[in-house]
Amino acid sequence: MHLDLVPLWAGILSLAVLMYVLLDGFDLGVGILFLLRHDDDDRDLMIGSVAPIWDFNETWLILGGGGLLAAFPLAFAVVIPAVYFPILVMLLGLLFRGVAFEFREVIHARKSVWNRAFAYGSLLAAFAQGVILGNFIKGFQVTGRSFSGSSWDWIAPFPLIAGLGLVVGYTLLGSTWLVMKTEGALQEWARVQSRWSLLGVLAFIVVISVWTPLSEARIAQRWFVLPNLLFFAPVPVLTAVLAWLTWRGLKRNWDILPFIGSMGLFFLAYTGLIISLWPYVAPPSITLWDAAAGPMSQEFLIIGTVFLLPVILLYVFWSYYVFRGKVRGDLGYHN
């Protein structure tokens, strides 16, 4: 007799995706903000605020992709062909961005070129991730157990709108991160960007929240039928409360609350996504149990994951604790 590990694996992959979006989202947002801030000293501070932690954030992306292949191979076989080109764009963006981190500080390097690589690499990666998300919500064309659509299905209004929405969302995370980590003129500029980004995020939340149930009957059925309507009502209510708290924190010149609030907004949006899609891993037809690997494979994989996941989490908390406080150009981080 084998244990049903599908819910546990679904939880692990959900955690990996959430952690990636939250942690890599703000440093992608910092990269996007390079397009709006041109002072070299400020750009050095911006990149210095994420330099000690940015590369480890992408560990969650590897865990999510590898876990999907290992635990839900059918979903991997359906999803990857459908979003092959957005994934390629995302990886190229992350590649240019990662190289720019190192080469922009090399003596005699053309710093302006690497600044653009960092900025546009971040923008492309964020947009591509939003397009992938939009395709998940829209669903995949499946015949039998195989993807039967086109690798160009992602070129549609909803995935492209989702791509723009995630760019604005990452900009909010990045700007509130800079509010928390910097001082002076750069911090005040980041506050202004945070307010505009928050308004943009709320607009996209409204658009997507209206668009998805109108276009997808399965999502409308999940949200707007009793008693589900009562059970899930706290999600939009808490979203409104967090948005107000975040705005209030920005108006009152608080440093930490806006960043926590923006992360909370992402968490609630992610919760809403799970509510809309559960139990499908390749909607609208392939459930987690349809796509799952054999029980013995899942049991074998969970052994290593149970030991690895706490180490990753411990490292995350420790690294953010070590590099707490403000960043300054002359001293680096100081508490």
Task: Give an account of the 3D structure.
- With 335 residues, the chain is mostly helical.
- The protein has one domain (6-334).
- Helix content is 76%, strand content 4%.
- It is built from 15 helices and six strands.
- The strands form three sheets. It has a two-stranded antiparallel sheet.
- A hairpin with a 2-residue loop joins strand 1 (142-143) and strand 2.
- The protein starts with 5 loop residues before the first helix and ends with a strand.
The domain tally reads 1
Q: What overall form do the CA principal axes indicate? A: globular
Q: What is the rounded distance between the termini?
A: 54 Å
Number of helices: 15
Q: Widest sheet: strand order?
A: 1-2
Strand percent estimate: under 5%
Which structural class best describes the helix and strand composition?
mainly alpha
Number of strands: 6
Mean pLDDT, as a whole number? 86
Radius of gyration equals: 20 Å
Low-confidence stretches: none
Instruction: Give the SSE string.
Output: HHHHHHHEEHHHHHHEEHHEE
Report the sheet with the most strands, covering strand number, pairing sense and barrel closure.
2 strands, antiparallel
- What helical percentage do the residues reach? over 70%
Provide key terms for this protein.
335 residues, mainly alpha, two-stranded antiparallel sheet, 15 helices, 4% strand
